[in-house]
């Protein structure tokens, strides 16, 4: 699991729904009414599940390939362990926290957009810096799916998407995120909206995707999932 420094983000005006024909793309525009609130695996907090694959998989049932969620961390404490999974965590709101690992140096995440990666096998403990935080979480099954997670703020980013094999997920944490696939579609994502574009699309193998933080305070996340 790693951040991909070569895959950045971009900009362009758009509407909340696609403004150009998108018959060639199968997408899901998700909002808070589509998400699931559930307890942490260890019972010490709550998380909002944004999306999971395959659909219907769960923490206690069918193993999942990947999962994206937003958690509220209100006190210092242990994180749930997820053996066999790789994780990314991005601070969405709040002053941040430090994560102490039993198998790696401490990670200090001290601003919204700060992110780190770690193994779900590790014993992980959080220590809040100054009050509660919300954090954006990505988990992928080691050996089955590779993840690339990127914080989007200030500058636009453009990267290359491979529709047949790669799933894209964009989540707007605050502000407005504009997404554009030239000649295919444009969207505006507002706070807590998510756009999911599954793999297996019947488009050419490589497509330019642009993501544009539209307001000064916009913060969003882009996640790319590739089968190993």
Description:
The protein has 228 residues and is mainly beta. It has a single domain, classed as Sandwich (Jelly Rolls), CATH 2.60.120. 0% of the residues lie in helices and 50% in strands. It contains no helices and 19 strands. A hairpin with a 6-residue loop joins strand 2 and strand 3 (46-53). Residues 1-23 have low confidence and may be disordered.
CATH superfamily: Jelly Rolls
Number of domains: 1
Mean of all residue-level pLDDT scores: 88
Q: Give the class from helix and strand content and strand pairing.
A: mainly beta
Return residue spans where pLDDT drops below 50 for at least 5 consecutive residues. 1-23
Largest sheet: 6 strands, antiparallel
CATH A-level architecture: Sandwich
H/E element order: EEEEEEEEEEEEEEEEEEE
Assign the CATH topology.
Answer: Jelly Rolls
Topology:
Blueprint: E1 28-30, E2 36-39, E3 46-53, E4 66-73, E5 77-78, E6 85-93, E7 97-101, E8 107-109, E9 115-119, E10 124-128, E11 133-141, E12 145-152, E13 157-161, E14 166-174, E15 177-181, E16 185-189, E17 194-197, E18 207-213, E19 219-227
Antiparallel strand pairs: 1-17, 2-3, 3-4, 4-11, 5-10, 6-9, 6-11, 7-8, 7-10, 12-19, 13-18, 14-17, 14-19, 15-16, 15-18
Spell out the key features of this protein:
disordered N terminus, five-stranded antiparallel sheet, 228 residues
Quickly describe the structure.
By secondary structure, this protein is mainly β. It contains no helices and 19 strands.
